[in-house]
Amino acid sequence: MKIILTRDMPNLGQAGDVKNVAAGYARNYLIPKGLAVKATSGALKEFEHRQSAEGRREERLAARAEALAQRLSDLTLIFEARASEKGRLFGSITTADIAEALEREVGEKFDRRKHILSEPLRQVGEHVISVRLAADVVAKVKAVVKPEGGELPEAAPAEPVKETTPEDDQVIDSQVIDGQVEEQ
User: Fold this and answer.
1) Distance from C-alpha of 90 to C-alpha of 121, rounded to nearest angstrom
2) What spatial distance separates the first Cα and last Cα of the chain, rounded to whole Å?
3) pLDDT for 115-134, tens place per residue?
4) Residues 147, 148, 151, 155: what is their CA dihedral angle, to the nearest 10 degrees?
């Protein structure tokens, strides 16, 4: 019996394939489960029409996703959160917060599980967030996390520090750079 597969079937074929299978397999399993339909000229035409409509729909969605990706790439999200002096946040900016901010800025609905591909933000500064809009369209959005009520911390200039060693009681000049002591 000739059938048209409506879904991908392992060891049988892809959706849209016309296959010749045993009549009992088609009547008792494939057709009742909605995995296939009997191959008639009308069914073939209908399936081709559905596939072309689906192709046009996917093209429209891909074009819309590309336009949205362009809008998102120009966007900068700004978050304020409580942070320590070293720039570590007390808590984090979660994917739900990011999705909510994107919805406010763009006016589109974003699902935190499907669209936002980054981890929660736990540090003050600039971050790049990946947002999946379609299967092959991923936009990069810039996010700036500022400490609450303040500005971004700038790199502090290195200050010379005088150290004494107990063994030889001599003074050593050194600089503190990024939390590490560097001797001169």
Assistant:
1) 11
2) 87
3) 888 888 899 999 999 988 88
4) -30
Q: Are 15 and 35 in contact (CB under 8 A)?
A: no
What's the topology of domain 2-62? Ribosomal Protein L9; domain 1 (3.40.5)
- Determine how many CB atoms are found less than 10 A away from the CB of residue 139: 21
Note the pLDDT tens digit of each residue in 73-93. 888 999 999 998 888 988 889
Separation between Cα atoms, residue 52 and residue 59, nearest integer Å: 11
DSSP string of 26-87?
IIIIITTTTSEEE--HHHHHHHHHHHHHHHHHHHHHHHHHHHHHHHHHT-EEEEEE-B-TTS
Report the DSSP pairing between strands 121-123 and 2-5: unpaired
Report how far residue 132's alpha carbon sits from residue 169's, in angstroms, rounded to the nearest whole number. Answer: 61
HSE toward the beta carbon, residue 155, CA cutoff 13 A: 6
Class of domain 69-147: alpha beta
